[in-house]
UniProtKB/TrEMBL annotation:
Region annotation Disordered: where it falls in the sequence: 40-98
Compositionally biased tracts (Low complexity): 49-98
Transmembrane regions: 249-268, 274-294, 315-336, 356-375, 387-407, 419-437
Keyword Cytoplasm attributed: no
Protein name: Uncharacterized protein
Entry keywords, A to Z: Membrane, Transmembrane, Transmembrane helix
Naturally occurring in which organism (per UniProt): Chlamydomonas reinhardtii
UniProt key word DNA damage: no
Length: 441
């Protein structure tokens, strides 16, 4: 009897255990099916349930039904040994339904995320390809008429402009014309030039004489620039002859500026503002043109032209060497105490006007050096050297006339020094004019 009662109890416990297991499986299975069928946001709910958060409504719950728990507890209190063994065997024999559902959901979620990333990348590529033509169209579209563009200051590259031989010829044409016009004005109407440029000055007769001398030096300058114009047209400016002449013109322009700056304390307030500015701009512009052309035509940038210091090879070369020495002495005399023009007193502007001689006679010295080199090579019949000879002849004949007038008007004493100066000027003029007329190519 006792054995039968024990068997009945065991069977009853096993039945209760199986009933509890079925209830537990139903509890774990039904919510999952219900959620999957009835809720559209099942993915977020599964993520929350698997991450250990609080279970919202409709999510999978891990608590068994109350009736099952009570029955299982009663079974444990009655037959603890048998129930424990049965529970362990059931747990070990079947996998957890929650783990299986979570694994399947995670796999599905990973697949959906991968698909989402692919779709997002495709959409981004399509959007970029669609926006690119629109951006290009906006960039190519003209600016609205009412839109104001930023103000830009126009620039001028003198070096680039003077790289072309036609522009070089045009620049030297302008310089030659300016020198010729100023030469005529200073020689014929010196008083008008001084009154227009320096209206505040008390002009003396000596100032008028010195202004005329400035005019004849500008005649020599015009002959040089005219020769450079023809050389530019023939693209010959790379020659050492023209490099030396352009260097001489650049030094002449620098000399004009130096004389002006040296006399600023005494003469600045006497100048007309426009005339003073025109003087500066002309000197700077002429010097810049010559330096730019030297840089573009020399083949080695801005460099000192080659100098030939060999002794003269013939009589003509010796004659031009003597001319160059006399011109350098005249340049030095422009800044030395006056020994010839002592008949009239100096005015406030006399040192300035006499100082402007110096650059012109310095250029005449360069011309003499170039002619000496041409005489060494028997090239005095070339058109360039004929023009230079004509320029020196004009300078010296003009100076002779002006200096003779100064002697007659008592601005210069008639003595040995003054007569030798006049004779030297006439000799140079005649020598240059004779060479101009007789030299052959």
């Amino acid at each position: 009897m006792q054995a039968q009662a024990l068997n009945a109890r065991v069977r009853s416990g096993v039945a209760l255990t199986r009933s509890a297991t079925r209830g537990t499986r139903a509890a774990f299975t039904r919510p999952v099916v219900t959620v999957a069928a009835s809720r559209s946001n099942w993915r977020e709910e599964i993520e929350k349930s698997t991450s250990g958060g609080s279970s919202p409504v409709g999510t999978v719950t891990t608590e068994p039904p109350p009736s099952t728990t009570t029955t299982t507890t009663t079974s444990h209190s009655t037959n603890s040994t048998i129930n424990t063994n049965s529970t362990h065997s059931s747990s070990s024999s079947a996998p957890s339904p929650l783990a299986a559902a979570a694994g399947a959901a995670n796999g599905l979620l990973t697949s959906l995320k991968a698909q989402q990333q692919q779709v997002a990348a495709a959409l981004a590529s399509v959007a970029e390809s669609a926006l690119r033509p629109a951006a290009a169209a906006r960039a190519a579209a003209p600016a609205p008429e009412d839109r104001q563009e930023p103000v830009s200051i126009p620039t001028f590259d003198l070096m680039e402009y003077l790289a072309d031989s036609k522009h070089q010829a045009a620049a030297f044409t302008v310089l030659a014309a300016m020198s010729a016009v100023l030469s005529v004005l200073c020689t014929v109407e010196p008083e008008a030039v001084l009154e227009a440029a320096i209206p505040g000055a008390d002009i003396s007769d000596l100032d008028v004489t010195f202004t005329r001398i400035i005019g004849v030096t500008l005649a020599a300058s015009a002959s040089v620039e005219y020769s450079l114009k023809h050389a530019a047209e023939s693209q010959l400016l790379k020659s050492a002859t023209y490099q030396r002449l352009m260097a001489g013109c650049a030094v002449k322009s620098a000399g004009f500026l130096a004389v002006l700056l040296a006399n600023i304390p005494a003469t600045f307030e006497l100048w007309d503002g426009v005339a003073w500015l025109a003087y500066v701009i002309t000197a700077v512009g002429a010097g810049a043109v010559n330096l730019a052309v030297i840089t573009n035509s020399s083949g080695k940038g801005l460099a000192v032209p080659p100098l030939d210091l060999t002794p003269p090879a013939n009589a003509s070369a010796w004659g031009y060497t003597a001319c160059g020495a006399l011109y350098l002495a005249t340049v030095a005399a422009c800044f030395a105490p006056e020994t010839l023009f002592i008949g009239d007193p100096y005015s406030d502007i006399t040192p300035l006007v006499k100082g402007v001689w110096a650059p012109g006679f310095l250029l005449a010295a360069v011309m003499s050096y170039v002619l000496k080199d041409a005489a060494d090579r028997n090239r005095l019949g070339a058109s360039t050297f004929k023009n230079l000879n004509l320029g020196l002849a004009a300078l010296e004949y003009g100076y002779s006339v002006i200096f003779g007038s100064a002697i007659l008007s008592d601005q210069v004493d008639m003595d040995g020094a003054s007569l030798s100066n006049l004779a030297g000027s006439l000799v140079i003029a005649t020598f240059c004019l004779y060479t101009y007329a007789t030299a052959k190519k």
